[in-house]
Amino acid sequence: VAPTTPVCEVPSSAMTGTVVQMSCKETEGSPPSEYQWYKNGVALLEKKGTGSARAANITYTMNKKSGTLLFNTVTKNDTGEYFCEASNGIGLSQKCSVKRMQV
Asked: How many domains are there within the chain?
C-alpha cells in the first residue's frame, strides 16, 4: 500500500540551546514507510558514525524508521523551512506541507 500524506510536527519557534524534536508519521503505508527530512528543500543527512558527522557539523539525529528529527541544542543556523517525505517503495512518496521554525 502506498503511503498517505504524513503528518509533520515542527515547532514554529524554539529558544537557542534547547532540545527540539520534530516528528513525521503516516499510518497507511505497507510495508511501513521510511521518512526523510528536508531543510530549505535540501535532504538532511543521516548521521553515520561520529567522525564524518562532526566534520559535516551535524547537530541533529534523524531516524528514518520513526520519522523523528532531534536537535540536542538548536542554534540560529537551524532556523529554516522543514518538511518530511514518507516512502515505502510502493506508489509515489508523500510530503507534508513545509513548516518554518524560527530559532
From this structure: 1
* CATH assignment at residue 48: 2.60.40.10
The answer as to whether 1 is a domain residue is no
Give the global pTM: 0.89
2 found inside a domain = no
CA 36 to mean position of chain CA atoms: 6
Q: Fill in the DSSP letter of residue 102.
A: B
Q: How deeply is 82 buried, as exposed, middle or buried, from its count of CB atoms within 10 A (0-12, 13-18, 19+)?
A: buried
In three-state secondary structure terms, 55 is helix
C-beta atoms surrounding 30 within 10 Å? 11
Summarize pLDDT for 25-34 with one digit per residue, the tens: 999 999 999 9
Asked if residue 78 lies in contact with residue 37, where contact means CB atoms within 8 angstroms, the answer is: no
Strand partners, 86: 35, 94
> Binning pLDDT at 50, 70 and 90, where does residue 46 land?
confident
Domain assignment of residue 27, given as a range: 7-101
